[in-house]
Design goal:
β7, α2 and β8 form a beta-alpha-beta unit. The strands form six sheets. Strands 13-12-14-15-17-16-24 form a seven-stranded mixed sheet, with helices on both faces. Strands 5-6-4-7-8-9 form a six-stranded mixed sheet, with helices on both faces. It has a five-stranded mixed sheet with strand order 21-23-22-25-26, sandwiched between helices. It has 20 helices and 26 strands. By secondary structure, it is α/β, with parallel strands linked by helices. The two termini are 47 Å apart. α6 packs across α8, α9 runs parallel beside α14 and α17 crosses α20.
């Protein structure tokens, strides 16, 4: 869905909703309170449809025109044991009438579909927040399964919250009694009842959800009708019950963004669209060779739908075959892509090294997750930076690009393609699970805003021998970029040797000459070092002494923390890296301007290690590796300590 908004404004990204107004209704009609922001978390079993519920609430919120940020959180198991803590799935949505940056630190509203969902999430819920619980699931067996000796609904442990006990299951079954469904079938719609109730509470549009349900269950119209009925029943319950005396309005974020047409987008969807746009701007077919792996698989799913744009997708039998096919497509003249997550990068490393040696454009999209090995497949981490930088044998330098928000994944994909095509090199793009699954508004760009990525293939001989013979040298380089020519197989007169064994400079013939190998290694490194990347911009309005430096998905939490500190009168500077290899040329000079440099990362200090080694700056790490993104308040506290120190 799209919406129109206009003119920018910047406000602090906070964790708490603020009551900004109150609208009194006539007698018998419920009060409506206006808020500037709300954070809602839906939580239940992985089979309760919490991700679908959150997605639908998000879509309606986007169509309404709010700024938003989401955090899906789900188990790695396809179907974890029902009613257990490991099986809890949740979806958090932060939406506001102004510019926000994160899914929020703590929910104002928790919807808990069972005791496990309540226990797994209650520690994050601040006192005074609203908790809606499905009382039908709080049976003795369900309580014992998660370690409750007595029901928290009755023992006073929830007295500090605004508790709304609602028999969601029973109400849903009652609403669907005329649809001829079994009780089990009817119970599956309780997430739609909850969605209807929350849609009433926060005045969300409903037309889009009803249209979605009709489309999703088009082949089962009776199921579509039942879900729509449950959704409407939830809305009507909110309207009529005495337990919900107030509903809330969060106005559209009409002053948060530049004028344009916006839609809600996730990071993986933005990457997919960015790749398609890059292929069109380069006038090259797009080829994806991939093996499914969480959390990268959505890119394969999405690109497979776009054959009309000349996209070809190949689901390979394993990670090695996926990148091998992609490299073959690059040799054949396609914009070639392979997608994976951390463990898959390890398997692809030999072929990435081959691409470095062959000097062919190839995009390697690493959607990082918790590791090592299988690790935490559905959780987020930033721990593949050193693997991207050094994870190949020999001297095999590769450019590295990292998007900072879900919407920024679109631009990062185009930038990675620009570098790969211009400099004839594989490029690593480091996204992560937080960006991949999270979503936010994205301004749909005009075509004329996109860069021209047109490629000139080799057409004929490019070198003259001493005897006057004109020949094609596959490693004769562009003097500006050091890129070698890209010759399409089958072009008459452009036959040349290719492979992983070291080549002679210029001719591409196999060479074991020590001096030639030294020259080729240094030349490949010089090509990467010479990539044209923009200077790093620093946000420092007050001449601070402390700089916080980040990369990738830490942008939102860092920026939110910086806003909080500045709002309280502190002075702090912020800079965020998109290009991690090569670093921006002015990075060293920037680092030396500050007394203290703090680098928050969702790893054990990988960027900090690189910065300390390259620039001899005493950068301080602030690290977290718990599978979840930083919280703004947590970072603000750490940065305040750095300022005071």
């Amino acid at each position: 869905m799209t919406s129109q908004v206009s003119s920018p404004a910047e406000q602090a990204d906070g964790a708490d909703s603020t009551l900004v107004g109150e609208q009194r209704k006539p007698a018998g009609v419920k009060d409506v309170h206006r808020l500037d922001r709300v954070i809602i978390r839906f939580a239940g079993d992985s089979g309760d449809g919490m991700q679908l519920t959150g997605d639908r609430f998000t879509s309606e919120t986007a169509s309404f025109g709010n700024d938003l940020s989401t955090l899906p959180n789900f188990p790695a198991e396809i179907r974890a044991p029902a009613g257990t803590l490991p099986g809890v799935s949740s979806f958090q949505l932060h939406f506001a009438d102004h510019d926000i940056l994160t899914p929020g630190d703590a929910p104002n509203v928790l919807v808990a579909m069972n005791p496990a969902a309540l226990k797994a999430n209650i520690a994050d819920v601040p006192r005074g927040a609203e908790i809606i619980v499905n009382t039908d699931e709080f049976t003795k067996r369900a309580l014992q399964k998660v370690g409750y000796a007595a029901s928290p609904l009755d023992d006073g442990s929830l007295d500090g919250y605004s508790l709304h006990p609602v028999p969601l299951t029973a109400l849903t079954v009652e609403a669907l009694k005329d649809f001829g469904l079994t009780r089990k079938e009817a119970e599956r719609s309780k997430n739609m009842f909850a969605l209807g109730l929350l849609s009433w509470m926060y005045h969300r549009p409903t037309e889009g959800t009803e249209k979605f349900l009709k489309s999703k269950f088009a082949k089962k119209p009776e199921i579509a009708a039942a879900n729509i009925a449950a959704f409407r029943a939830g809305w009507n319950f909110g309207e009529t019950t005495e337990d919900f005396a107030v509903s809330y309005e969060v106005a559209p974020a009409t002053t948060a963004f530049p004028t344009g047409t916006y839609r809600n987008i996730s990071g993986n969807l933005a990457l997919s669209y960015g790749l398609v746009a890059a292929s069109r701007q380069a006038d090259l077919p797009l080829f994806l060779g991939s093996y499914p792996i969480t959390p990268a698989s959505d890119i394969l799913h999405e690109l497979s739908r776009h054959k009309n744009f000349g996209v070809r997708t190949f689901q390979a039998e394993d990670e090695i075959a996926g990148i091998g096919a992609a490299l073959g497509a690059a040799f054949g003249g396609s914009l070639a892509v392979t997608t994976t997550s951390g463990p898959g990068v390890a398997l692809k490393s030999e072929t990435i090294g081959l691409a470095v040696s062959m000097e062919l454009p190839l995009l390697v999209l690493d959607i990082q997750r918790g590791g090592p090995s299988t690790g935490l497949p559905t959780k987020t981490e930033q721990a593949d930076l050193l693997q991207a930088m050094f994870g190949r044998n020999g001297e095999a330098p590769v450019p590295i690009v990292a998007p900072c928000t879900p919407a920024d994944c679109f631009d990062a994909a185009i930038e990675a393609a620009r570098i790969a095509l211009t400099y004839r090199t594989p490029v690593m793009l480091l996204s992560d699970g937080y960006l991949a699954n999270g979503s936010e508004p994205w301004r749909i760009p005009d075509i004329d805003e996109l860069p021209d990525l047109t490629v000139q293939f080799a057409q004929g001989p490019n070198h003259t021998l001493d005897d006057g013979t004109e020949v094609f040298w596959p490693y004769k380089r562009d003097p500006q970029t050091l890129a070698r020519p890209w010759a399409i197989p089958g072009t008459p007169g452009l036959e040349h040797r290719i492979g992983g064994i070291e080549k002679q400079d210029g001719t591409g013939n196999i060479s074991y000459d020590p001096a030639n190998h030294d020259f080729m290694v240094r030349t490949r490194q010089a090509k990467i070092d010479g990539i044209d990347v923009p200077d790093l911009e620093v946000d420092d309005p007050h001449g601070a002494r402390t700089l916080v430096l980040g990369w990738g998905s830490t942008f939102g939490p860092i920026t939110a923390a910086v806003r909080r500190l500045r709002a309280s009168g502190e002075s702090i500077a912020q800079a965020h890296l998109r290009h991690l290899n090569p670093f921006p040329r002015n990075l060293g000079a920037i680092l030396k301007r500050y007394d203290r440099v703090v680098i928050p990362e969702m790893n054990l200090g990988q960027l900090a290690m690189l910065v300390r080694a390259k620039y001899l700056v005493d950068a301080h790490s602030y690290n977290q590796v718990n599978g979840m993104p930083f919280k703004a308040e947590q970072l603000a506290t750490a940065l305040k300590e750095a300022i005071d120190g």
